Amino acid sequence: MQALAIRLKEKGLKATPQRIAIYKYLEDSKDHPSAETIYRTLRESHPTMSLATVYKTLDSLKKAGLLQQLNVGEDSFRYDADTHPHPHIQCVQCTRVFDLDPALLQNVSSEIRQTTSFQVLSQQVYFYGVCPDCQGSQREAVND
Amino acid sequence: MQALAIRLKEKGLKATPQRIAIYKYLEDSKDHPSAETIYRTLRESHPTMSLATVYKTLDSLKKAGLLQQLNVGEDSFRYDADTHPHPHIQCVQCTRVFDLDPALLQNVSSEIRQTTSFQVLSQQVYFYGVCPDCQGSQREAVND
DNA sequence: ATCTGTGCAAACATTTTGCATAGGT
DNA sequence: ACCTATGCAAAATGTTTGCACAGAT
């Protein structure tokens, strides 16, 4: 992950093990984990890392434009290394969050601009439903 | 507002002055206020009403299907007496939240169902931008 | 040597809860 | 009289902050 270290430094951020681990975990997993989940998972490889560092790092990476914060409506935020605006869908049964195709909303912004004269800048779009895995089977909530 | 009292009782809820005031305020204003804003506003007419009552009432009304909770991404929730699913847009300058036409997303749910096999149940859709009033003029954040 | 990042603990803000009292039916 | 709703205070939760130390350049 040399590329990440470079991108961090471009943003004036030091490439510390904690930051690399957090970003890498976010990038690899498609789990959209919360700060708490990140903390619990990375504790194994980084036993001294504190929860405050996780929050501070997530904040730094967000400000540097390297990740986005999701507000699915739970008690806590989730984080996504994919900074392209795209809708998400959460399964109300297993609570997992999945990405949706950005094309779903591609003409909505311009339509809003035309009908409301709003200058549209960004979006947060969440759908809720039952995922294929949970349809039929009554699976439990998953930790992601 | 006799109709409201009846609707409350249909849901097994007592039609107390506090509940009526909160619901009426929500219904009349298109402000999508937070619990705190509701509290501060209704304090004038209901000086003894506590913040806890506002929260409890909002929870009861939500469970009764008489309002919906919005999660615009601020520290606190906002509330909407219009329970029909519809997108919202927030002005990043004055922080006001406006309703958008539900038709904007009318075919998105079925498209999601087709492409992901998700059974879509609900949605939370927020756009962000600069409202017509704030374009050009640098207005301050409004309390709503 | 400087300067940023980390880790710990305390602080913070919103929301929830417990419990005694008030008020409606 | 009963039973739910209210109001107050305390608790709970996720997140932020202050500060001293560690680590990198």
TrEMBL record, chains A, B:
Pfam families documented for this protein: FUR (PF01475)
Entry's transmembrane regions: none
Cofactor dependency: Zn(2+)
InterPro entries found in the cross-reference section: FUR (IPR002481), Fur_C (IPR043135), WH-like_DNA-bd_sf (IPR036388), WH_DNA-bd_sf (IPR036390)
GO biological process, one term: negative regulation of DNA-templated transcription
Cofactor binding mode and count: Binds 1 zinc ion per subunit.
The UniProt record lists the keyword Nuclease: no
Keywords, ordered alphabetically: DNA-binding, Metal-binding, Repressor, Transcription, Transcription regulation, Zinc
A single GO molecular function term of this UniProt record: zinc ion binding
Binding-site list for Zn(2+): C91, C94, C131, C134
Gene3D superfamilies in alphabetical order: 3.30.1490.190, Winged helix-like DNA-binding domain superfamily/Winged helix DNA-binding domain (1.10.10.10)
PANTHER family tied to this protein: PEROXIDE-RESPONSIVE REPRESSOR PERR, ZINC UPTAKE REGULATION PROTEIN
Assigned protein family: Belongs to the Fur family.
Identification of the protein by name: Transcriptional repressor
Lineage, highest ranks first: Bacteria, Bacillati, Bacillota, Clostridia, Eubacteriales
